[in-house]
Specification:
about 250 residues, mainly alpha, 2 domains, 8 helices, transmembrane, Tetraspanin
């Protein structure tokens, strides 16, 4: 009976570690995609030190989970106590790090409000100055998502113009409609857009557009994170039970 229980524990341990292995592969792939994606995310990540750090943490965590899932599977099948103890210690560290990151994300969630982004835009945006990372990033976001400002074109009315910009053109070029949503896309009617003709402008704010675009993925990421934490917790329990059961 004890042997059957140990055998069941071994295969459950293998199953949970296989899921950890797959989760690590997904995180690794997602981290690589965020960093190398050509549609604007690379510039957004590079412009924000917090996002830049987060992307590489995601890569590191994915690589560690990928490796530990593999080691856990090997330790369970081969019934190797050294591998199981190594797995338990590192999966515990990863579990605590992920839990801490989730708590910090919850605490600092107020920094992602509409008011925060509006204030930052009005404070730092320099219109067509692409040598400024903040401005270049915002221009890329507005072009990629076909949106304008945080709330709409009215966000730019109080932003001063650069010395070489016409003073009567409050709307930046990045808010003008294009045939293709990229920097290489042709303007539909640039002059009419800059002169204030609304039908040639992207009138919707980026906050709403991006929130709607990523709302499903945010809930999916949250559910995935909870699932990964639960799997890691059960994997640690099974690892210790299997470790104690091996003679």
């Amino acid at each position: 009976m004890e042997g059957d229980c140990l055998s069941c524990m071994k295969y459950l341990m293998f199953l949970f570690n296989f899921f950890i292995f797959l989760g690590g592969a997904c995180l690794l792939g997602l981290g690589i995609w965020v960093i190398v994606d050509p549609t604007g995310f690379r510039e957004i990540v590079a412009a924000n030190p917090l996002l830049f750090t987060g992307a590489y943490i995601m890569l590191a965590m994915g690589a560690m989970l990928f490796l530990l899932g593999f080691l856990g599977c090997c330790g369970a099948i081969r019934e190797n106590k050294c591998l199981l103890l190594f797995f338990f210690m590192f999966i515990l560290l990863i579990f605590l790090a992920e839990l801490s990151a989730a708590i910090l994300a919850f605490i600092f969630r107020e920094n992602l409000t509409r008011e925060f982004f509006t204030k930052e835009l009005k404070k730092h945006y320099q219109r067509h100055n692409d040598t400024d990372v903040f401005s270049s990033t915002w221009n890329s976001v507005m072009i990629t998502f076909a949106c304008c400002g945080v709330n709409g074109p009215e966000d730019f009315e109080s932003i001063p113009h650069l010395p070489y910009s016409p003073s009567d053109k409050a709307t930046p070029e990045a808010c003008c409609q294009r045939e293709l949503q990229s920097r290489e896309g042709m303007f539909i009617n640039k002059e009419a857009c800059l002169s204030g003709v609304e039908r040639f402008q992207n009138r919707q704010g980026c906050y709403t557009v991006i929130l709607n675009s990523f709302e499903t993925y945010v809930y999916l990421a949250g559910a995935l994170a909870i699932g990964v934490l639960a799997i890691e917790l059960f994997a640690m329990i099974f690892a210790m039970c299997l470790f104690r059961g091996i003679q």
